[in-house]
Amino acid sequence: PSIPRHTNRLINEKSPYLLQHAHNPVDWYPWGQEAFDKAKKENKLIFLSVGYSTCHWCHVMEEESFKNKEIGEIMNKNFVCIKVDREERPDVDKVYMTFVQATSGGGGWPMSVWLTPDLKPFAGGTYFPPEDGVHRVGFRTVLLRIAEQWKENKDALLENSQKILEALLHMSEIHTRGQESPPPSKEVMATCFQQLSNSYDEDYGGFSESPKFPTPVNLNFLFTYWALHRTTPEGARALQMALHTLKMMAHGGIHDHIGQGFHRYSTDQHWHVPHFEKMLYDQGQLAAAYIRAFQISGDEFFAGVAQDILLYVSRDLSDQAGGFYSAEDADSYPTTASGEKREGAFCVWAAEEIRALLPDPVEGATEGTTLGDIFMHHYGVKETGNVNPMKDPHQELKGKNVLIVRCSPELTAARFGLELGQLSALLQEGRRRLSAARAQRPRPHLDTKMLAAWNGLMISGFAQAGAALGEQEYVSRAAQAAAFLRRHLFDPTSGRLLRSCYRGKDNTVEQSAVPIQGFLEDYVFVIQALFDLYEASLEQGWLEWALQLQHMQDKLFWDPKGFAYFSSEAGDPSLLLRLKDDQDGAEPTANSVTVTNLLRAVCYSGRTEWVEKAGQILAAFSERLQKIPIALPEMARATAVFHHTLKQVVICGDPQGEDTKEMLRCVRSVFSPNKVLMLADGDGAGFLYRQLPFLGSLERKDGKATAYLCSNFVCSLPVTSPQELRGMLCP
């Protein structure tokens, strides 16, 4: 590669997204004091650009504007330009996204915001084309107009920015009014179910026409709703909605049939043509959702999809030190000789490519049938491509096919006169050959940043799958990642989590010069992961760490005045607002998950003040939970856990004994949203016995492994047979 003409300060950063911009002609600064001081000293406005490395339109705006020398000159002359990776600094992103959404009615990335030298926003938007068009004003024009305004009307602009800030402060407050109690769980659950049911797509599953997102928070809500209403028609519908959605997604093009794992979302109603980036947080949450579907239905199909996701993550998103990478990009070079990247190039197929790879005549099938014929029929491949031109505005997928399961195995087998077993082997061979051919293509960019929060979500996926399937290998992978977090994203002297670390040269793990401290979501998803990992491994060390982190979370983020937790800690003068998120989206919001975390923490520690905190969070979000719980399905789910009280399932037994293992298998095989598992191994000096004195009074009946179902530390009569235990867990 030629020597780059330009190099800016981003060259010293670790984030793959910031490094992608290190050779723009724009004089980019990272978010920090140096940039703020320069803006103040030179009395210049700040242009803030926020994105992430797998964001398609971020790449487009960079190609069109940030690599353009003239536009770069306008930016450098009039502004101090700052680039932020939203995955590293969700706090900065949220503050200015709140502004953009409030003023333009929409939001997204790349986010473009203009700030006064004291960081107050006054103008903003998302993607701007470089030049003026019929319907949109171009980036160059916007830059020049804003620079002009700053020269001519500085005082008005400053005054306006102060008013905007006051309005944002007022708008973004979430707090309880007085000593409110949590909203009634029954009504919240019923309303949330109704709202999901009304937005459900009966034909293809999912909860919107298009685009369609794989919202695990909705599916988890429906599973909990079913568990509490098993015998009612509503309960049956909730389960059907969740299972049908998971089935349609697994058959769709959003699922990578050749390389495993799930793409970000579908652009159409049928889960067919996706945006092709793959995010760690989707894999972690979807693995857990498919495992729950398997626990409830007993259908091996769902277990297979979960295993497929975990195979993808183990192979393609895993660092050798044990952490998980953040994402794989959607865009890549179609061939090694290509000059420009195309979306989906790594994943799509021309019909003739498949014919050439699968030319073999198939024995026993209808005369003249090749492996290619069967494969193309089953996966909806068309000679001219199977992508609707309406879903391909840039014609990047013209003549290409996104594989989607179009027929049941029974139908495909009948069509070609095959046995089911034979068909399954043929399709597997077809996928194997396409996978080998795909391995020759240039791979998409891999974002090797490792984030505590997303690693937490992925550890939960591995731990839950390992427990439910009895697969030790998955539990070990979860433990390896938790040990990685402890080693690289935790500071034992301060007891605090860090947000991110990076894959450096020679595959070592690196930290930035000034490490980014963990945010609320890092604590919450890691604590959840450690509870899941304890239930899968019964290693008490993970519990002990989880409870330490919970105390630290309380100290750093709790709002004693308005209740609930702030997303970021106090004391950062460059953050204009301390916000509380109020939307369960692609990831659940931290306050939603923390309600269940706190209730689990009580079960393992006996500290009842955490029950009170959980109730105060629900009270703080009470109005939203009663009006539009569909915006907070994970928190709506948590109202039920709060209301029904978690049941402690205590198994007294020798961890190595077969009878103990059988009882544990029984507990782990059932889906029960309000159970917490613990093993009383008789070691009175161990962590759990020290936390929970009542365990000392529980004993093994007739020397056999014995289960107790306890609520608020009061226990049922002992049972020694897995059948009886199952009956108690699934009333």
From TrEMBL:
InterPro entries: 6-hairpin_glycosidase_sf, 6hp_glycosidase-like_sf, Ssp411, Ssp411-like_TRX, Thioredoxin-like_sf
Highest taxon in the source lineage: Eukaryota
Location of the Spermatogenesis-associated protein 20-like TRX domain: 7-168
Pfam families, per database record: Thioredox_DsbH
GO terms, biological process: carbohydrate metabolic process
Protein name per UniProt: SPT20 protein
Origin species: Balaeniceps rex
Gene name of this polypeptide: Spata20
